[in-house]
Each structure stands twice: as C-alpha cells, then as structure tokens.
Design a protein that fits this description.
alpha+beta; single chain; 248 residues
Length: 248
C-alpha cells in the first residue's frame, strides 16, 4: 500500500514515527517543523481524504499567511470544512498564548515609566490584528499596571468606547493615571480626527477627578504614534483645560 493510500485510510498514525509531527517535535524540537506541521499538531486529526498536515497547509493558504491566520477575526473561521468549534478554539488559544508570551511575565511587574515602554507593550498586544482594538492600561501613582482592559473592538468607525466606560473602569481599579491605545489595521499610525476628539474628551472627563492621561498610543503595522511624544497630548490638554474667558 502506498503512503498516500495509507494516509487516506489511517492518517498520520500510519506514517513512520520520525515523519509524524508530534514525534518529530519531541525528538528534534519545534524548530524542525514546518508551519503546516505545527498547525497539524493543534488540529490533531484531519478530515476524510486529508491528513492533519494537509489541512494545516490549506488553512495557511486560505488566510494567506500564518501571520494573517493568527490575527484573523473569529468570524473568519466560520464555515471552514473540518474546523469546528473545538478546533477553532484550540488554534485561537494557541495564537493568543504566543501573543501574550511577548508581554512581561507578571502584570504586577509592569511599570510604565516612559512612553517608549508603553509603546512596546501595546505593540505586542495590538500589532497584526485584523480589526481595531481599543485598550486602556490603568496605573497607580508609581506607574505600575493595575489592569489592562480591552474596551472595544470592531471597525474603524465603531471602535472608540464611550468615555464614561473608561472613567468608570478607572474608578473601579482606583487608578491614578491611564494610557489609552488602539491599532490601525490599515498600517498607518497617524491619529484621525475622532482619535483626537476622544483624547480631548478623555482629558476633560478625567482631570476633574484627579486621573492623569499619560498618553494615547496608536500602533501601526511597523511604527507607532504617541500623543505624548509628539506634543499633541500637551496641546489637547492646554486647549481642553484652558480657563474660559470671562464675558463683560
């Protein structure tokens, strides 16, 4: 019987051990496997007529690249033959673990003492996503992270959360300061007019209750934009908090 026929009847289990992805990983290390082989380990089994490696290869081709597959929205997995809820959950969980592995080991050890630290942190969180995500890092007086919250996700036009939601979360966490961040899936890390308006409104809402807005970071495909580093945050603060001239 040829290996092609064997794979159709018995799957990868019928292959020589040294060619099976799981056994190869355990003997030679994960670096020895192709992308499709690694995906196959997560899938565990294929579908009639296709082994798990073929399914893994077709998945990568369907999305265009491994990176695109990792950042695809949940809706993109609907209707893929042989990929039910269980396999979808396994794959997305593995991708998210890889993303989180790029973050500091312990949240309580994360300090934002400089704008570049915040930019690097949010780049690991947001870069490569196919939809816009809006996150806020709530900090104590020493700049230590209390909580990092995803407050909105979706299209560019709808991603901004209500300012009251951000303020409410800040009060719940007893935060003294916060840093807002979102990504631009288009790849251009430049603030839009709605981005500026949201930042201005956030300053106006948080200043009276003693919560500082330290930055608003926009993550692009390559670089990032910092409202603080560019001086735009200072300009918005001066505009928003300037005293209203008295009328005669």
């Amino acid at each position: 019987m040829s290996r092609a026929t064997e794979s159709e009847s018995a799957g990868i289990v019928s292959w020589p051990e040294e060619e099976r992805p799981r056994e190869r990983l355990l003997s030679l290390g994960a670096h020895s496997l192709t992308d499709a082989q690694l995906v196959a380990i997560l899938l565990r089994v294929g579908i009639p007529g296709k082994d798990a490696i073929e399914c893994g290869r077709e998945l990568i081709e369907r999305f265009g690249s491994l990176q695109a597959m990792m950042s695809a929205p949940l809706s993109a997995w609907d209707g893929i033959k042989g990929i039910g809820n269980a396999k979808t959950a396994q794959l997305i969980a593995a991708f998210e673990l890889g993303r989180r592995a790029a973050l500091p080991a312990k949240r309580e050890e994360i300090d934002f003492r400089a704008t570049q630290q915040a930019a690097h942190y949010f780049a690991a969180r947001l870069r490569g996503l196919s939809e816009e995500h809006f996150r806020v890092a709530f900090l104590n007086r020493k700049g230590r992270l209390l909580e990092d919250v995803l407050l909105a996700e979706g299209t560019v036009d709808s991603v901004h959360p209500p300012v009251r939601s951000i303020v409410a979360r800040a009060l719940i966490t007893n935060a003294s300061a916060l840093i807002a961040a979102h990504n631009h899936p288009s790849g251009v890390a430049e603030p839009s007019e709605p981005d500026k308006i949201l930042t201005r409104d956030l300053i106006a809402a948080c200043h009276p209750i003693g919560i500082k807005i330290l930055d608003h970071v926009i993550v692009g495909e390559v670089g990032h934009f910092s409202f603080a580093d560019t001086g735009l945050l200072y300009e918005l603060c001066m505009y928003t908090l300037a005293p209203i001239p008295e009328t005669t």
